[in-house]
Amino acid sequence: MIKFTIGILFICTIALSEQNKYTDYNTATYLFSNDSLKQTLTIKVTSRNQIQFALISENIKRNKIFKLNGVASSTGEGDSESDMDEDGNGFFVDEFKYSNECALYIRLDADEFRRAKITMHNCLLKNNHPTPVESLGIMHRIK
């Protein structure tokens, strides 16, 4: 009976910690910057399956700015996704999708929201805009 009770407590603890990771990191801001591009992503977790986001991508050399904000929903496909940082270290991500004129994917570090990455698919804006919208590298949390 004691082993059964401990097992139930363990499962409940895992479930609560999984739920808390979304509320503990309610709002976060990420930054990627190099000599030609500065990207800032701010997210606010509105539920376990949804985030509000604001993305600013600035082409420093051309002095052009792209801004996009909206609500992205968890892809929740059940498969563990992963990305790799600059040092070649892999990390698991939670993926959120924003669909409007194209599909924008926001991939957040699944452990503590310390890193983020943006990818786009089937997007005319991706090819026609003078400012890259996709992450050229991993964005790191600054607040």
Average predicted local confidence, pLDDT? 78
For the biggest β-sheet, the strand order reads 1-2-3-4-6-7-8-9
Percent in helix: 10-25%
Q: How many beta-strand segments?
A: 9
Low-confidence sequence ranges: 3-20
Based on secondary structure, the structural category is: alpha+beta
Helix and strand succession?
HEEEEEEEEHE
What is the radius of gyration computed over CA atoms, rounded to a whole number of angstroms? 17 Å
Number of domains: 1
What is the percentage of strand-forming residues?
Answer: over 45%
Search tags:
143 residues; alpha+beta; 49% strand; disordered N terminus
Structure explained in plain terms:
There is one protein chain. With 143 residues, the protein is of the alpha+beta class. The protein has one domain. 20% of the residues lie in helices and 49% in strands. The protein has 2 helices and 9 strands; from the N terminus they run αββββββββαβ. Strands 1-2-3-4-6-7-8-9 form an 8-stranded antiparallel β-barrel. Strand 3 and strand 4 (64-74) form a beta hairpin. The radius of gyration is 17 Å and the shape is globular. Residues 3-20 have low confidence and may be disordered.
